[in-house]
Design brief:
alpha+beta, 5-stranded antiparallel sheet, 4 helices
């Protein structure tokens, strides 16, 4: 899996390996104590790889891996890059709030239009909501681009753990 690909917002990938899922999960479990560059958390068949707290910033990504068993000697890894879940939830909440306000101002403007009263304020607020949404979008793009190097580092760490286990 080349690391020079363009990384998109919340990219997903899958890798098939000729090893059991427990072997891979144990390899990630072992890295908790053998390195300090990343924080590795394992819950059942899920592995979360993040940067330590002192290296994290607002847009710091994390890598979520789900290691599923195909048979006794093969497994498949589903990976998902994404921001901290708290940041993602806040970002989505703000998007839905802006969308809800846009719709509410649209209904209010339509009501005033049908009553043949002034609706300039409502149209102005709808335009403001559109500007806020565009600002949120651009902020997300800036956050994504500032995290690209960190996403590559997470992916390289994952590949290193998998490849070390493959060579055993």
């Amino acid at each position: 899996m080349p690391t020079t690909q363009d990384i998109v917002l919340r990219p997903r990938f899958k890798i098939e390996l000729s090893q059991s899922n427990q072997t891979i999960l144990e390899a990630f479990q072992k890295t908790k104590t053998t390195q300090s560059d990343f924080t590795v958390t394992r819950i059942d068949d899920h592995v979360f790889i993040k940067f330590p707290k002192h290296k994290q910033h607002f847009w710091s990504p994390q890598l979520h891996l789900e290691v599923n068993e195909i048979d006794d000697h093969n497994c498949i890894i589903y990976g998902l890059f994404g921001p901290n879940p708290t940041v993602w939830t806040l970002f989505m909440f703000i998007h839905f709030l802006v969308a809800g306000l846009f719709i509410a101002f649209g209904i209010w403007a339509y009501t005033n239009w049908t009553l043949q009263t002034s609706y300039a304020i409502q149209i102005g607020m709808m335009l403001l909501m559109a500007v806020i949404w565009i600002t949120l979008y651009l902020g997300g793009r800036v956050g994504k681009s500032s995290s690209k190097e960190e996403m590559i580092a997470l992916r390289n760490f994952m590949n290193r753990v998998i490849n070390e286990k493959s060579s055993d």
